[in-house]
Each structure stands twice: as structure tokens, then as C-alpha cells.
Design goal:
By secondary structure, the protein is an alpha/beta fold. Among the domains are: about 130 residues, no CATH class; about 130 residues, no CATH class. The chain is about 35% helix and about 10% strand. The two termini are about 30 Å apart. Bound molecules: flavin-adenine dinucleotide (FAD). Flavin-adenine dinucleotide (FAD) binds next to α9 and α26.
Length: about 1100
């Protein structure tokens, strides 16, 4: 069955290739030319089915596509590009309400009158249906659905026919829920699947809340979430093939919820939560061009082939296929998507530069391409929703290397820095950040509409459905005297995040929920292990109010002040300053900027959105990801060497003409433009906008920061470093080596401060050094020779005088790169809290994507990709209209009328009715003979720490209260948790022993229960098999029809019935009956 075949496919395999260009070339040896290899293959003929072999071969095919071989840059325009004249002729007519569309709408409504859908018959109002919203029966997305009915009276808005009532011929309840699985086990599966997304298994996303609040009650949230999580489970199990609407609807246990499942599916698809990336969409019969019917074909021009641009174009390609029939309904051909890229390669700031070596000297490297990463390179964890997990591991199956986080710091004399001292300094550094985090922007907590966890954990839906919609309850409450307004109801508790340690690989602080600066500074320093200067009492506190109030205060100015104040109460020596400034250099690396250029309020606006899991690098080059997006499963229309110089657009409406002009004078007419040009280029103003961008956009462009991080990459004949270590750090001296003046450290701290051994991903012995903060800017105007010389000196201080000169070296200069003008965005000193949102906001038919348009994941590859998904969804909204919620959304429970209707339907398809009855009877028979499927025993706390923290909660709380500053309130549960974990770390082996023993005992008992359960399951299943045969003998089974793939009465296969039970938003690529 297709559903059950959605097995997890996350094996590693091989991937390779990237093109090269010479932006950063600095070669000592004469370059060895790569043999010319054939261009990228095509994979258009991939077949997708539930067959595992086919799925595997499809993954292999993806690999063959992206691995390709070293290739010429020119061969990157892989798609058969339409002649520019055909694009030039695509200018759009202003008339949006052409005759064919109008007649379609008329046809549609008159058909509805003649054949009203069963659901359009007014039914008895029922307590258990989702009430037609008391406040509004319209979609809650920001669209005036009614405006489509007046034939487009609003001239600026595109005409959209009313959403057709639709029916599903292939839908049956529960078919996507494995029949033999215990409900709580299925629930666990679903919840685990949601863990791999950015959604909360137990709560509505903000957009889901907006979509549903007028249509479902609080009690119905659990059922909705169960269905939505079920759909995500299908996707997580096999992201090589798209989840179909029919499968999604099969996650509903009751046909009354089909529309909900369908709606949830639409939301998940359109928002790129499922079916994204290099997924093979089914061939659509609606995608054929038939101009004779007078349909228009729109053009979407995406500017930039970095992760944002390619992610957006790939997603648009999938969405267009998915909603092709809907497009036909509104009189549109499937739009064409063209990507214009200024460089001669794709990937943008992800650039895996080819190394001039024919064969890897490393024995285990295999046949991957030999590359070094000039730009983005680290995947910061696959878990908790990183979409690149799906693409890298689930779809392209690229090999990757897990980075070992242990990092030794070396002083300039080559000696390793004492770990204890470094920990002490890292603690002080984090304490400074903790104190400063009280000045952060306070973001309003999001709405939190949760399902019933207990029910959901057991895999059960709510039986009490409630009469009032969420909106009704919220608005009624708000109308009461002294009640909070709607926006303040049902909000998540305000959680502040405080830095507790540093991720040394990314330089970003690791945070925990808590209250910043709870303890007085002297008391805290003492608790960390510092000796206070003589005469300083534990009551002493730093004054950060004064420096933070200075006009133009930045993170760096306040932090420098904080360090200077600490110097007054602690004995800080030059080594301490070197160490502190090494950590600051790491922070400057993560922000690609001197920290004096970072906003005091917004420097870590993205905190709390980090992924989990090991940091990794792609073997053979990160650029395999953008190349995979470009090529798999079919090539996108990417035109390289097309630098854009002018963008004209229609500001007032998403419908209107647009045009893009390239440097060589070529013009591309478009209906929608997605601009992913980096913020640095936008700041520079080398691309002209007509009309000029509105001031709210240009001001945000100015306020946001865009700094630089550079790399010096040295390739050697052999490794002279420990091949098993991925990192080492070097603390740098200031010009006056013994200085204890914080200002003296700025210029030097980021010079060759962090080194990576990237040999295992590059295939050659190579060391890569970061140049961060002011040092990064210096690189832009320092000669290669000088840089390599200095790098060699630093290495000699670490490894001794025998360090050779590298045989090849690469230096990045991202600020001088005309297509980047820097490395990545940061929070500029004057940044406003919503500047990233402003960057993302479309202006008419001009849409924006790129790492600088995502406040939750800026400055990253995954953030760029996510922004591409968001922009694609916005363009789809402009194309076909937003998601429309049918009303009532949840069908009423059976009434005499509905039963009659059902009986009539069953008369129309008696076979199916008999089959359903057979199935139900069989399950009753089974249960009467052998009872329910055995329930899996619940998990136990098998970890000693959990048992310890439970037992020591109160003691930890008391500890949190010690030394607490006045007015900082009671310790939050998470502060207590941090304390218990510290106590656990500090506990002696004797203290830990009883908890460890208890944990072992509990685990053993659980294992025993699992063994018993497994035996019971085996027994139950074998009996069930026998009983099925017995039952089939007594009650012979009848096949539904010829389309039944497996002839079984139940299961996840797509079935084709004749009649339809439901309706939902307009059309996608499935059988649709319009009444
Ligand atoms: C040195 C460095 C290290 C980094 N390290 C990491 C890391 O370890 N992990 C991580 O997640 N992120 C990292 N990043 C950040 C990450 O690489 C970027 O955030 C991400 O790649 C940006 O993607 P994008 O699509 O927004 O922009 P880009 O990749 O820059 O894509 C924009 C595209 O637009 C093109 N373009 C520009 N102007 C024009 C024009 N006028 N006409 C046509 N095309 C144009 C560009 O050529 C480019 O291809 C790093 C970046 C750098 C520079």
C-alpha cells in the first residue's frame, strides 16, 4: 500500500559537482584543467509510485543528476530556454476580466443551481458541526472573497471565480491510518513526524489559527491537529513523493472532517510544509498548452539563483503543477518560471570552488568532487524542522560529515589554553550577554491555541465538539468589561531567552528560557568561580543602564563597557582579555560584522529558532544543494550571465505589468517578479527600481546591516595537523601584547582566529581560516601574498616552524563581489523590530526573498531557502487567490435529511456501501473474538537525570533564589531546570548512583513489558489472519471495481469511486466534480 510504503529514506549516498568560476581564485600552482565532462543529465522521465525499488531508483537518479561531473559554467543554462523574443512578447494586457473567465463563472453558478451539491442543501443547524461563523462565514485569510462575486468591481484586483464545490471520488476515511497500529502508537508517530517540521504538534500555527478561528471551536482543535499531524506523518515517511490530497483526506477518521483534512492539506502544500524540494510531482493533464482556447500564460521572473531564488522557482514549479486545474478554471495556462542569474554559476553565496587536483590523496574520500567552500558551508542541525534535512538527506541523499564540536584554543605561543580558565572566561562572556539581553526587543508572544494533549497522545479525537467558534468566544470575551482584547487572549506565556553558553562552531549563543540578569554581578561572578578584588562585596552590581542609554548605543559599546566594569571588580589579565575577545570574534563571525555595528535590541532577533542535531558539511560541496534544486526532478529555466539592471513593476496591485532589464539590454516581460538580490546589492543601489521602492522598504534596507565575513583557504600536500579534529581556535594578541584595554583588541581578534580542518569534505588536505569583524574588511584590500604569509605565521605559532607554504590558496572577498556586496545580513544599529518583515513584504507584483527577508532565520542558507518557499506561496496567492474555507467547514452530524441523502448516494454506489459494511463487520467480528489490538506499554523515564531533577526540584528553586536581584520575581521553571542540570553536572558519582540504578531498573522493566507486548502482538496478528480467512469464507469479499489496485477492502491505495462526498477549496490536480 502506498501509505505504508512511505518509509523513512534518509540514507547517505553520493553526490557531487559544482561549477567553478574564478571570483576568488588565487592559485600558487598552475591550475590543472578538469577534463571536460558531459552536462547535467535530465531526470524528467522519473516515475513515482509507491514501489520502494522505484523510490530508491528515483533517489539514485537525483544523485546522478546533481553529481554530474565537473562541468563548464556555460552548460548551466540547462533548460531549453525560450528565445528571448518569445519572452519579450509576453507583455500583459490590462484587461483582467476577459470573456472566457466571465462565462466560466456564469456556467459555474448556473450549474450550481441545477445540481446543488449535497452540502449546499441547508441542513439542520447542529451543535456538532462547525457553525457557519457567527461573525463571518468568509475565509479568514486577508482576502475579500465577495469581491470575486461582483465581477471584479475592484478593478485592481484580479478576477477569481467562486471556489467550486468539489467532490472527491477517491476519498475514504482512515485509509492513511495503518489499521493494525494502536491509536497511541499512531499518535506518537504523528507527533514525532511533526518534530521534523517547524510546527508544534499540539498547537495551531498562527496562520492556521487565522484560517480556522471562524470555523472551528476550541474543542475541535485536537481533531484538526490529529489530522494535520497525520498528513505530516505521511510526508515525513517518504519525502520523495508528494502526499496526495486523497492520502491527506484519509487521515480523517470521519467523512464529516474531509473538508478539514483537505483544507489542512492545502495549507501545508501552499506554505511549503509538505511536498517541497526535489519532489517528483505527478504528471498533470492540465499542464498542456492550448492557446486556441484563448488562455493566457503568465510569466514569473525570479531574480537570483541562490538558495532563495532556486528554492522559490522549484517550489513554484511544484505548486503550478499541483494547482494546474485551478489555473485552468480561471482561464490561465500554467505560468512559466524564468530564473535570471547574474553570475555564470548557480548557488550565489553557496559556492563550492573546484580544487585543481585530479585525484583525492585521501584514501577514504571516494569519487566526490574536490572543492572548498567559499561561502555558506555549515548545516546547523537537521532536527526540529530544517527543510534542508528533507532535501539533503531525504531527497538528494547527499553524503555529509558531522562536525565534532570539541575545540581547543591555542595561545599565540602555541600552547593550548587551560580549559578551566577558558570556561571561566566563557562564563563571564555569557554573563555579559545575559545582562545585555535585558535590552532586547520584547516581541509580543504568539497566539497559542492548543489541542488536548492527553487526547492527542492517545490518538483520540474530541467527542465534545463545542458550539461556538474560537472567534466567537474570543470576541464575546473581549466585549466583557475589563476583559483583554482578542489579540491578548490565548497567548503563549512570555518567554525570555538568556544566553547560557556559546556554540563554538557558529559563534551563536545557546539560550535557555529565563530572566536576564537575575543576580547581582559580583555574586554571579563569585558563583562562577571568580575571585573578587579586595574590598568588593558580593552586593556590587554593574551599571549597564548608563551605557545603554547613550545615543547610538550598540551591542558592542555596551558589551565593551560591561567588560571594563568587570575589570574593576575582577583581576582580569591579558590572557583573559585575549580569551574574551576570541569569543567576541566568534560572535562577530556569526554576524559578519564588528559588534559595534550591531543593534543593542535586535542583534539576536532570531534566537530561539535554532535547529537541533549535529552541525554538518556536505561532502563534495554544499553547492550540490542548489544544483539539485535546479535540476531535480526536471531542469528549471535558469539563465546565467544575466545581470539585472532595472526592475519595473506595478506597485498598487499584484496584477499588472512588470519588466526586468538585463545588462546586455535584454528585457523580460513578467507578471510577477521575485527579487532575491542580496541586501548588499540593494543597499548599493546598482539595480534601479521603477517606480522607486516605497520609503518603508528603502528605510529598512538602510537600517538593516550587511557586513562581511571572509575566508582564507590553504591547501597542502599532506596534513600536518590532527586529522581527527575539525576545529581549533587561536587567540590573538593586540598590537600591545600586555594590554588590558578592551579597545586594543578590536582590530586583531578576528584575524585567523578560528580554523577548520575541512579535508574530509573537500577531499584534499586543507585548512580554512575565518576572518571576522574588522579583519574581514581588511581582507578586501590586503594582497593574497600578505594574507597567506600571515596565515602561515599563525600556523607556525601553533604547529612549529616546519609548517610549509600551501600549494594552493583561495581567498574570498565577498564585499568586493558585485553580486553580493558582503556576506550576510545583520541587525544594524538602528534596526527596527519588524525590519526583516518589511524586507519580505511584497510591493504590488514585486515579491522579495533572500536571507535578508527572514527575521527568524536570517544570514543562513536554510533561511534563504525558507524565504523562497514563502515568496512562492505569495505568488501562488496572487495567481489563484488565497485559501478559501468552505462553510460550514465541519459537516453536521447525521440528521434525518443527511441520512436520507447518504442512502441515496449509497444507492448510486451500492458496491462501495457493501464493502464498507463488510469491513466494519469484519472488525467487529475480530474484536469479538480476540479483543482490541494490544496497546504498547507507555514509555518510562529511563534517564537518571530526569529522576534526579524531579527529586531535587525544590532544592534547585531555592538555589535560584540565592543572590537574586530585587524585582526579578520568582525563578521561572526553566531557570530551575537550568539549575538542576548544573547540580547534576556537579553532583558526585555517589549522589548520582541511586538515580542511575533506578533508571536502569525502570529501563529493564520497560524492556520486559515491551517483550511481552511484542509477543501479544505476534499472537494477535496471527490469530487475526486466521480469522480474516474464516470471515472471508463465511462472507465472501467483493472487489470495488477494476481500479482497485489491491482488491482489498481497506488500505491506503487510491480508489476511484463514482460519487463524491465532500468539497473544499477549488482545484488542484485531482478529480473534481463541479456542481
Ligand atoms: C563567507 C560566508 C559564510 C557563510 N557561512 C554560512 C554557513 O556556514 N551556514 C549558513 O547557513 N549560511 C552561511 N552563510 C550565509 C548563506 O550563504 C547565505 O545566507 C545564503 O546563501 C543566501 O542565499 P540567498 O539566495 O538569499 O542569496 P544569494 O545566495 O546571494 O543569491 C542571490 C543571487 O542573486 C544573484 N544576483 C545578485 N545581483 C544580481 C543581479 N543584479 N542580477 C541578477 N542576479 C543577481 C547573485 O549572483 C546570487 O546568485 C555564509 C555566507 C558567506 C558569504
Amino acid at each position: 500500500m502506498e501509505t505504508t510504503l512511505r518509509t523513512k529514506l534518509i540514507d547517505k549516498s553520493v553526490g557531487k559537482d559544482s561549477p567553478s568560476d574564478s571570483d576568488f581564485d588565487f592559485v600558487f600552482d598552475p591550475p590543472i584543467a578538469h577534463p571536460r565532462k558531459p552536462p547535467i543529465g535530465q531526470s524528467d522521465n522519473l516515475k513515482v509510485s509507491g514501489d520502494l525499488e522505484e523510490i530508491d531508483s528515483m533517489a539514485a537518479n537525483f544523485n546522478s543528476v546533481i553529481r554530474g561531473d565537473p562541468m563548464d559554467i556555460d552548460s548551466l543554462s540547462v533548460s531549453p530556454s525560450p528565445s528571448s523574443s518569445s519572452l519579450l512578447s509576453l507583455s500583459r494586457k490590462a484587461d483582467k476580466l476577459d470573456t472566457p473567465k466571465r462565462s466560466l463563472r456564469l456556467q459555474h453558478s448556473s450549474l450550481q443551481e441545477i445540481h446543488p451539491s449535497p452540502l449546499s442543501v441547508p441542513s439542520e443547524p447542529s451543535d456538532h458541526s462547525s457553525n457557519p461563523s457567527v461573525i463571518s462565514s468568509k475565509a479568514t485569510t486577508p482576502v475579500d472573497v465577495d469581491s470575486s462575486r461582483d465581477g471584479g468591481a475592484k478593478k485592481a484586483e484580479p478576477y477569481r471565480p467562486r471556489v467550486s464545490r468539489r467532490t472527491y471520488s477517491n476519498s475514504r476515511p482512515k485509509v492513511s491510518i495503518p489499521p493494525g497500529m494502536a491509536p497511541h502508537e499512531y499518535a506518537t508517530d504523528c507527533i514525532l513526524a511533526v518534530d521534523w517540521t517547524m510546527l508544534n504538534a499540539y498547537a495551531l500555527h498562527q496562520e492556521e489559527y487565522a484560517l480556522l478561528r471562524h470555523h472551528i471551536s476550541y474543542a475541535q482543535v485536537s481533531t484538526y491537529l490529529n489530522i494535520r499531524n497525520g498528513i505530516l506523518r505521511l510526508w515525513a515517511n517518504n519525502p520523495l513523493v508528494p502526499v496526495t490530497r486523497e492520502e491527506a483526506i484519509g487521515c480523517a477518521k470521519d467523512p464529516r472532517w474531509f473538508d478539514v483534512a483537505s483544507l489542512s492539506y492545502d495549507w501545508l502544500v501552499r506554505k511549503g510544509q509538505i511536498n517541497f524540494g526535489c519532489v517528483k510531482h505527478r504528471k498533470s493533464k492540465h499542464l498542456t498548452t492550448n492557446k486556441s482556447q484563448g488562455r493566457k500564460q503568465k510569466t514569473i521572473v525570479v531574480i537570483g539563483a541562490g538558495l532563495a531564488g532556486l528554492g522559490c522557482a522549484r517550489q513554484l514549479d511544484g505548486l503550478i503543477r499541483h494547482y494546474s486545474q485551478r489555473l485552468l478554471e480561471i482561464g490561465e495556462e500554467a505560468p512559466r518560471v524564468v530564473v535570471l542569474e547574474g553570475r555564470s554559476r548557480v548557488g550565489g553565496r553557496v559556492y563550492s570552488r573546484a580544487v585543481n587536483t585530479e585525484q583525492s590523496p585521501l584514501p577514504d574520500f571516494g569519487s566526490e568532487r574536490l572543492t572548498v567552500e567559499m561561502g555558506g558551508m555549515i548545516l546547523t542541525g537537521f532536527e526540529r524542522g530544517n527543510p534542508l534535512n528533507t532535501i539533503v538527506r531525504g531527497q538528494l541523499k547527499l553524503p555529509y560529515h558531522e562536525l565534532k564540536p570539541d575545540l581547543d584554543l591555542y595561545d599565540m605561543n602555541g600552547k593550548v589554553v587551560d580549559k578551566k580558565r577558558d570556561n571561566l572566561l566563557e562564563g563571564l562572556y555569557n554573563d555579559c550577554l545575559d545582562r545585555i539581553s535585558q535590552y532586547k526587543f520584547k516581541l509580543p508572544p504568539p497566539k497559542l491555541i492548543e489541542g488536548n494533549r492527553d487526547l492527542m497522545d492517545e490518538g483520540r479525537d474530541s467527542t465534545a465538539e463545542g458550539q461556538k467558534t474560537i472567534a466567537y468566544v474570543e470576541e464575546t470575551t473581549a466585549s466583557l468589561p475589563h476583559a483583554p482584547p482578542v489579540s491578548e487572549q490565548n497567548v503563549a506565556p512570555q518567554v525570555e531567552l538568556v544566553p547560557i553558553s556559546t556554540d563554538c562552531i557558529t559563534g551563536k549563543p545557546n539560550v535557555e528560557p529565563g530572566v536576564p540578569a537575575t543576580q547581582k554581578s559580583a555574586a554571579k561572578a563569585k558563583a562562577m568561580g571568580w575571585n573578587l578584588k579586595q574590598g568588593v562585596s558580593e552586593d556590587h552590581d554593574l551599571d549597564l543602564e548608563t551605557p545603554s542609554q547613550v545615543p547610538g548605543a550598540t551591542l558592542g559599546s555596551v558589551m565593551d563597557d560591561c567588560i571594563t566594569q568587570y575589570k574593576q571588580i575582577l583581576e582580569l589579565n591579558p590572557l583573559d582579555f585575549r580569551l574574551l575577545n576570541w569569543h567576541i570574534a566568534n560572535l562577530e563571525y556569526s554576524n559578519a560584522n564588528n559588534y559595534r555595528n550591531l543593534s543593542l535590541q535586535g542583534w539576536d532577533i532570531d534566537t530561539g529558532n535554532e535547529w537541533e542535531g549535529k552541525h554538518t558539511m556536505i561532502v563534495g560541496g554544499y553547492q550540490n544543494v542548489p544544483r539539485g534544486l535546479m535540476s531535480s526532478p526536471s531542469p528549471l529555466d535558469v539563465k546565467t550571465k544575466s545581470p539585472v539592471t532595472r526592475i519595473s513593476y506595478t506597485p498598487g496591485s499584484s496584477e499588472g505589468s512588470a519588466q526586468v532589464e538585463c545588462e546586455d539590454g535584454t528585457n523580460f516581460d513578467a507578471d510577477y517578479i521575485v527579487n532575491t538580490i542580496p541586501l548588499g546589492v540593494l543597499k548599493q543601489g546598482s539595480v534601479k527600481f521603477e517606480p522607486e521602492l516605497p520609503s518603508w522598504k528603502t528605510e529598512a534596507i538602510q537600517r538593516l546591516g550587511f557586513g562581511v565575513l571572509n575566508k582564507v583557504i590553504l591547501i597542502y600536500d599532506a596534513m600536518f595537523w590532527d586529522p581527527n579534529k575539525d576545529f581549533f581556535g587561536v587567540v590573538r594578541n593586540p598590537p600591545h601584547a600586555r594590554s588590558v584595554n578592551q579597545k586594543d583588541y578590536t582590530a586583531q581578534r578576528g584575524r585567523f582566529f578560528q580554523w577548520l580542518n575541512v579535508s574530509s569534505t573537500s577531499g584534499v588536505p586543507v585548512l580554512l581560516a575565518f576572518m571576522a569583524g574588522d579583519a574581514a574588511s581588511d581582507v578586501e584590500h590586503t594582497s593574497n601574498d600578505d594574507l597567506v604569509r600571515e596565515a602561515t605565521e599563525v600556523l607556525k605559532s601553533r604547529f612549529g616552524q616546519r609548517v610549509p607554504y600551501p600549494r594552493q590558496a583561495f581567498v574570498s572577498r565577498w564585499a568586493s563581489d558585485r553580486f553580493a556586496r558582503g556576506s550576510y545580513s545583520s541587525a544594524g544599529p538602528d534596526m527596527k523590530v519588524d525590519d526583516y518583515d518589511k524586507m519580505a513584504k511584497p510591493v504590488g507584483n514585486l515579491f522579495f526573498a533572500g536571507e535578508h527577508t527572514t527575521g527568524t532565520h536570517p544570514a543562513t542558507v536554510h533561511g534563504a531557502y525558507l524565504s523562497g518557499l514563502r515568496a512562492a506561496s505569495e505568488v501562488l496567492d496572487a495567481l489563484i487567490g488565497p485559501i478559501v474555507v468552505p462553510t460550514p467547514l465541519i459537516r453536521p452530524r447525521e440528521t434525518p435529511q443527511s441520512l436520507k441523502r447518504k442512502a441515496e448516494q449509497h444507492l448510486r454506489d451500492p458496491k462501495r456501501a457493501r464493502l464498507e459494511a463488510w469491513e466494519m463487520e469484519y472488525w467487529d467480528f475480530l474484536r469479538s473474538k480476540i479483543g482490541e489490538y494490544p496497546y504498547k506499554p507507555a514509555k518510562v523515564a529511563g534517564h537518571a537525570y530526569l529522576l534526579y531533577s524531579k527529586a531535587h526540584y525544590e532544592a534547585a528553586r531555592q538555589k535560584c533564589l540565592e543572590g537574586r536581584r530585587a524585582g526579578k520575581g520568582k525563578p521561572a521553571p526553566n531557570e530551575v531546570r537550568v539549575m538542576t542540570s548544573k547540580m547534576w553536572k556537579d553532583a558526585s558519582p555517589e549522589e548520582k548512583k541511586p538515580f542511575e540504578e533506578q533508571a536502569v531498573k525502570q529501563k529493564e522493566e520497560h524492556a520486559e513489558r515491551l517483550r511481552n507486548w511484542n509477543e501479544k502482538v505476534k499472537d494477535w496478528e496471527s490469530k487475526a489472519q486466521e480469522l480474516r480467512k474464516e470471515f472471508e469464507k463465511i462472507n465472501p469479499i467483493e472487489k470495488v471495481n477494476d481500479n482497485d489496485d489491491d482488491g482489498q477492502p481497506s488500505g491506503g491505495r487510491r480508489r476511484r469511486g463514482r460519487f463524491v462526498e465532500s468539497y473544499a477549496e477549488g482545484s488542484d490536480d485531482e478529480d473534481v466534480a463541479i456542481y
